Amino acid sequence: SSTMNERLFRLFSEKKEGVILVSYTNSAINENYERLFEYPGMYGSVAKKEYKRPIVITTIDSIAGYICSSVAKIGYSTGFAYRDVKDVNYEGSVKMAYNIVKTMPDKVREKFINYKHIIIDEAQDVDLLRAALIFEMVYAGIFSTCSIAGDPRQRLNDKAGDWFVNLWTKKIDP
Question: Average model confidence (pLDDT) for the chain?
Answer without folding.
Answer: 79
